[in-house]
Amino acid sequence: MTFRIHKRASTGGAPAPRRSAARTSSTVLCALGVFMLVNGLPTPRDATAGAIKGTVTLKGTAPELKKLAVTIDQYVCGKEKNPEELVLSPQGGIRSAVVWLEKPPAGPPAAALASTVTMDQKDCVFAPRVVVVPAGGKIDFLNSDRLLHNLHSTPSANPPFNRTQPKGRTITIAFDKPEIIRVTCDLHSWMRGWVVVAEHPYYALTDGAGEFELRGLPPGRYTVKVWQERLGTVSKEVVVGDQDPTPVTLEMPAR
Ligand SMILES: [Cu+2]
């Protein structure tokens, strides 16, 4: 593939037109222009340009989730909160699921995850509710509310934290070990946030439609894993071949 493209590109590098051959050259250049319009500009494509593009969906009946009663600080938090432990698109796509490769491909990754991520406490919910940070990365926890929150977590591999967070204060916490961590606020019992500390760069978070993409994958067989806070973890074998991107649907049984 790469070889063919290079050859094409060198064919395109036509010699500079001499006066006598100007007419012929402009015909050649014109033909080349048409070729490029039809085929697109030749871009170098290496062996790691594959991708898995997919959707995480719910299999089975969506559970009925009740609104969460707000029992304190209603002047900021409101009277009730939407249950966010499972958020579905109209088509059944699951938002804020974390998808990753069990084993990353060898060689340097195409792109790195952002080393600092933000999680806010706003309107008395963690926003976003789920964040992915690389091992060795940091999270800036914010408080945009005009009241006191708290950050409380008891991870297994990373140090625990239990910090008071007045309005406007940023608390930065580093996460060195890969794991999935629940974060709560002791003052508002309904508040839940999740920090997924990634072992390598091949992690993705689903959007509102339940869609995700993992890029920079050489052809091969991969075990793709997906985690969602209510539904747990599901695995699927995916083969990345000539088709690009490789489509996949990851179904998570309802519960
Ligand atoms: Cu709070």
Structural account:
The chain is built from 3 helices and 18 strands. The strands form 6 sheets. Strands 14-4-16-17 form a 4-stranded antiparallel sheet, with no helix packed on it. A 4-stranded mixed sheet has the order 6-5-8-11, with no helix packed on it. A 3-stranded mixed sheet has the order 15-1-18, with no helix packed on it. The radius of gyration is 25 Å and the shape is globular. It has 255 residues and is mainly beta. The site of copper (II) ion (CU) has 7 residues, from loops.
Layout: helices, strands, pairs:
Elements (H helix, E strand, L loop, with lengths): L1 H11 L9 H18 L10 E10 L8 E2 L4 H4 L2 E2 L16 E4 L14 E7 L2 E3 L2 E5 L2 E7 L5 E5 L7 E5 L5 E5 L3 E6 L7 E7 L4 E3 L5 E7 L2 E9 L3 E9 L5 E8 L2
Parallel strand pairs: 1-18, 5-8, 7-13
Antiparallel strand pairs: 1-15, 2-3, 4-14, 4-16, 5-6, 8-11, 9-10, 12-13, 16-17
Descriptive keywords:
41% strand, globular, four-stranded antiparallel sheet, binds copper (II) ion
Structural shape: globular
Strand order of the largest sheet: 14-4-16-17
Give Rg in angstroms: 25 Å
Which quaternary structure do these chains form? single chain
Proportion of residues in β-strands: 35-45%
Number of helices: 3
Q: Helical content, roughly? A: 10-25%
Largest beta-sheet characterization: 4 strands, antiparallel
Distance between the termini: 46 Å
Order of helices and strands: HHEEHEEEEEEEEEEEEEEEE
Structural class: mainly beta
Unreliable segments of 5+ consecutive residues: 1-22, 27-45
How many β-strand stretches?
18
What hetero molecules are in the model?
copper (II) ion
In round numbers, the mean pLDDT is 86
